[in-house]
Amino acid sequence: MTTQVALVGGTGKLGSIIHTVIDELDGFKVVRVLTSSSDLAEVDGVDLVVDATTPQVSIDVVRAAVERGINVLVATSGWSAQRIALIRPLVADAGTGAVFIPNFSLGSVLGSALAAAAAPFFPSAEIIEAHHEKKVDSPSGTAVRSAELIAAARAEQGPVSAPHADQRARGQQVGSVPIHSLRRPGVIAKQEVILAGPGESLTFTHDTVEPALAYAPGIRLAVPYAAQARGVVVGLESMIDIGIRS
């Protein structure tokens, strides 16, 4: 039996990569390609909705899927824990699944997980993330997710040390972790998590240089997983055994 997929935002860069990967998956077929401005009623009758739109449109895509009892895979950035919390009761009531993937790169997921594992040992943590100049939202979903994982890992130690955080130049705090966002040409996606303590620092860096190659393994994991999921699931770390769970 073939799982029929509606791909919303399928004409964008990430959507095109997702489309290519799904075309190579056994048992899955993209039967409808929608843009961010399409009528979401077009998702009627499919088995899985994949969202690769924009932060402004994504919430409507998720609601349209959930209201129709369709599982949804969210590849759109901009979903914080607080925003996802608004969707949880809707998903629970519908008995469906909603899978949120801030970043399909396995290297990025591992980098964030390693940083979170090390965070309890350092009083200071800050994140610098850089993306191309056309990325609208900041901080990135990956940086937000990394900060949330760090905060969760430091539950016993409490917030990180972030002096002068009231100053705008000190970045936006997520889970007490300052995040600094760069938007410039010549970069695709890069993140540094810098942990520091007395006399030393530890930096975890991930750099995406070829999105199609970097994201494909994660997409191959996420699409079949999302088709069968129940409830809300966040991050590829929920699908691979690296000791971090949502």
Low-confidence stretches: none
Please give the alpha-carbon distance between the first and last residues.
30 Å
H-E order: EHEEHEHEHEHEEEEHE
Arrangement of strands in the largest sheet: 2-1-3-4-5-11
Largest sheet: 6 strands, parallel
How much of the polypeptide forms β-strand, as a percent range? 25-35%
Identify the CATH class of the largest domain: Alpha Beta
Kindly report the average pLDDT value: 95
- Residue share in helices? 25-40%
* Number of beta-strand segments: 11
User: What overall form do the CA principal axes indicate?
Assistant: globular
Rg over CA atoms, rounded to whole Å, is: 18 Å
Predict the CATH topology of the largest domain: Rossmann fold
- The CATH homologous superfamily of the largest domain is named NAD(P)-binding Rossmann-like Domain
Q: Which class of secondary structure composition applies to the elements? A: alpha/beta
Please indicate the count of domains. 2
SSE layout:
Blueprint lengths: L2 E6 L4 H12 L3 E7 L13 E4 L3 H13 L3 E4 L6 H14 L2 E4 L5 H13 L5 E8 L9 H13 L18 E3 L2 E7 L5 E9 L2 E9 L2 H18 L2 E4 L12
Parallel strand pairs: 1-2, 1-3, 3-4, 4-5, 5-11, 6-8
Antiparallel strand pairs: 6-9, 7-8, 9-10
Helix pairs in contact: 1-6, 2-3, 4-5
